[in-house]
Amino acid sequence: MAREIQTIGVLTSGGDAPGMNAAIRAVVREGIAKGKKVKGIKRGYAGLLQEEIIDMKAQDVSDTIQRGGTILQTARCMEFTTPEGQELGAEICRKHGIDGIIVIGGDGSFKGAQKLAALGINTIAIPGTIDLDIACTEYTIGFDTAVNTAMDAIDKVRDTSTSHERCSIIEVMGRGAGYIALWCGIANGAEDILLPEKYDYDEQKLVDNIIANRKRGKKHHIIINAEGIGHSASMAKRIEAATGLETRATILGHMQRGGSPTCKDRVYASTMGAYAVDLLCEGKSNRVVGYRHGDYVDFDIDEALAMEKVLPEYQFQVCRNLSV
Fold first, then answer.
1. Is the entire prediction scored with pTM above 0.70?
2. Are 165 and 240 spatial neighbours (Cβ–Cβ below 8 Å)?
3. Taking a C-beta distance cutoff of 8 angstroms, is the pair 43, 74 a contact?
4. Helix, strand or coil, per DSSP, at residue 261
5. 2 band by pLDDT with thresholds 50, 70 and 90
6. Residue 60 a catalytic site member
7. Catalytic member of 16, 99, 107, 131
């Protein structure tokens, strides 16, 4: 029979994402509601190895749900990718009485959670990444806020691009995934989107499309370029030379990680945080919380990491058709 969890640890790892604070808040308050102690681990796995561990009460997460970033801070930790670092992390958990831990982060963070679970620490992972690149779930904490931030910024660039009759290349985040670019391509009515999953690096097609659109009377041309392709500034120079049209590159960068989370990110992150606590209280371990087909679900971490996420082909075709 599974040993009952008494103390829950919570950490955020990897890139920050709006809504992480909502998840932390939910873990703390759901844990307390279930009669558990909750400890916050600062700076992710790096903080775990440095024993930056604090007791958390309900009032410690007051006035945090609307804040961007993560109140526990985050960091990347190469030491925790080693067996020695992982064993030390599990030992520190036991030293501080942490018998269950909730990890909020992306797939790299999940691998750390997987190792802790194998070393006897009951572990639940929650997908927190603006990239939406976790295959087992249709939702990741922070994506909704990030894509709305990018959409708003692109609308503003379009205004000035139209005024000056320019071509604008706007680079959005996403690492090797094109979900932010795809969604903004549809939401902003972009003329072209460049996605790592789809782009063939044929710039002549872009040049031909820009020229054809100008002949049809277009006053601007918006190209949304995913971070996984990058090189927006040099691309802008080449396109301007080929078309004769003034072309500017705008890299939105880390503004997409910040800001107050949307209602969706607050509600979904809160629900996932509470769900993760409930799984620990049921004696579960090595699980990832996900959202699929309108339900909150959980998967084995090994199974989740083995899944491959595919860009939705229909959405991509819709984006192309509507850009004409």
1. yes
2. no
3. yes
4. coil
5. low
6. no
7. 131
